[in-house]
Design goal:
By secondary structure, the chain is of the alpha/beta class. A hairpin with a 5-residue loop joins strand 9 and strand 10. Helix 6 runs parallel beside helix 8.
């Protein structure tokens, strides 16, 4: 094998940080590769796959990804390796298994939920029982014929952090079955942010990948969780958290964009918060709607979402009333009228236009704007920008795949300064290195989402010396608590990954200071 050309080939080769990731995965066998967006987790995975094939260690890779990444993975495998590959997706996928399994089988989390495990309730029983699905049966047959399997989960934290979901249980069952024939089965998870809401996220991921190194669920709960609030959210025991982190660290490879061996490959990032105060009319509307919670012991259904929309743009309630399922939005529009809601100025929309105008018109730079309210807020922002003579491209989850791809392609190809308006449908799977400014019109709900958003323009292919990321917050509204929750989750991630105090790393402490100053 030494005389053969390497199976992985790239015009740039492997950067030292990527070589380090390959070495960790090869030697550790299973675990989490946690690298900031843009460092090249997919490149690391492909290089490791090729190396294992060259060493005749594993010869069948099950690569699991999100639906919007399946074609991209297939194209990358074809571009950077000569390995045979096949998409296990679509109505004809099971028929294709009859022709044999190639070196790399690419599928999605949801497809495998159906094809790896079948859940039924046996007669006389109450609990669901799992049995092998058609793909798991085919993989077990391949193992029986001497093939060794490597499982790679792309963006694992987005899909497999909830151990009570049927999706999680299907993948857990499949890994358990594959390990019976192959006790040293390699399972690698790729992610930029393993924690979304709590330390349990990290525990749930690692008990899939390295079950022998993790405590049982009950042991974890007794050692790490002191209690839970009325919503089931855990309160953690600090000593127990440290014990868990000590168990987890050997199975986590961490690489930051600010690490000395990486920082020179990316533009310098400037992060800032912009806090705004409501105008009189917007504040009057907001306070009147907030009063609906007065004297109510339980949260008024839909009220929190309505308040967030009023903070973003009062006219957003109209779309929710006409096309959404919000009863409170329908009641408010019916009572106040569309004309009134359109007349209430949005301080944030005005500030966004004021902020972007010199960036586009004077500097000639491109910008990306994220809002969680795709269909209700983004069209309003597009109209406000149009009045200022700023062209924008809309990208939301409600659009068809071809429509979204056309918006992304046109934005990147546009030779003039413009703005990309996107919901969180655009937070992963798309790269926009042409933009040098990014605005969170509302703060992300989780640190994980914030990281993914900012990573869209913070790419290794960016030619800008600096990029600027701005988060807009309307003070005195529910947005204050949303930012604080995001920062609390940021703190957990810093602690879990050992990011606190890392050279150059902007962590929760620095972000909180920036927010307080703003």
């Amino acid at each position: 094998m030494d005389s053969m050309a390497p199976l992985f080939h790239s015009p740039h080769g492997l950067f030292p940080c990527q070589q380090e990731g390959v070495a960790f995965a090869y030697e550790r066998r299973s675990g989490l590769l946690v690298a900031d967006t843009g460092i090249g987790k997919s490149v690391i995975a492909m290089a490791m796959t090729a190396l294992l094939q060259e060493d005749q260690a594993e010869d069948l890779v099950l690569l699991v990804c999100k639906t919007n990444k399946i074609t991209e993975w297939a194209e990358d495998i074809a571009s950077f390796t000569p390995l045979t590959h096949q998409l296990h997706h679509g109505p004809a996928r099971l028929k294709r298994l009859a022709d044999g399994i190639p070196s790399v089988l690419i599928s999605t989390y949801e497809t495998l939920r159906a094809d790896l495990a079948t859940f039924t309730v046996p007669p006389g029983k109450r609990a669901l029982t799992a049995s092998p699905g058609p793909l798991l049966t085919a993989l077990a047959a391949a193992q029986a014929h001497g093939r060794r399997i490597l499982v790679i989960y792309d963006e694992i934290s987005d899909k497999l952090r909830n151990r009570s979901s049927r999706l999680y249980k299907a993948h857990q069952y499949a890994l358990q079955q594959l390990r019976r024939a192959q006790p040293d089965l390699r399972a690698i998870g790729l992610t930029a942010t393993p924690l979304s809401k709590s330390y349990e996220d990290g525990f749930n991921l690692l008990r899939l990948l390295v079950p022998g190194a993790m405590p049982k669920v009950g042991e974890f709960g007794r050692a790490v969780i002191k209690s839970r609030d009325d919503y089931g959210r855990p309160r953690y025991d600090s000593k127990g958290v440290e014990q868990f982190i000590a168990m987890a660290r050997p199975y986590i490879w961490r690489k930051r964009k600010t690490d000395p061996d990486v920082c020179g490959m990316f533009p310098a990032r400037i992060e800032e918060f912009r806090t705004l105060s409501m105008g009189k009319e917007q504040a009057r509307l907001y306070d009147a709607v907030a009063e609906l919670q007065a004297d109510q012991e339980t949260p008024v259904p839909g009220l929190h979402m309505a308040l967030r929309q009023i903070a973003a743009h009062p006219a957003a309630l109209i779309h929710s009333a006409l096309y959404g399922e919000s009863q409170i939005a329908r009641e408010l529009v019916g009572r106040l009228g569309e004309e009134y809601l359109r007349s209430v100025p949005s301080v944030k929309a005005e500030e966004l236009v004021s902020y972007l105008s010199p960036i586009v018109h004077d500097q000639g730079d491109k910008a990306v704007v994220f809002s969680q309210f795709g269909p209700s807020v983004l069209p309003l922002l597009a109209e406000a920008l149009r009045k200022e003579g700023i062209r924008s491209y809309l990208y939301t989850g409600e659009m068809s795949g071809p429509e979204r791809e056309r918006a992304r392609t046109n934005f990147r190809a546009d030779t003039n300064a413009c703005v990309f308006l996107t919901s969180d449908a655009g937070k992963d799977g798309i790269n926009l290195p042409e933009a040098t400014y990014l605005v969170e019109y509302e703060s992300a709900l989780t640190y994980e989402t914030r990281t993914q958003r900012l990573g869209r323009i913070d790419r290794i292919t960016s030619t800008a010396p600096t990029i600027t990321c701005t988060t807009m917050v309307l003070s005195g509204t529910v947005e204050d608590r949303i930012v604080e929750t995001m920062l609390e989750r940021n703190e957990m991630a810093d602690r879990f990954l050992g990011d606190s105090g890392a050279v150059g790393h902007v962590g929760a402490a620095q972000r909180r200071r920036s927010y307080l100053v703003a």
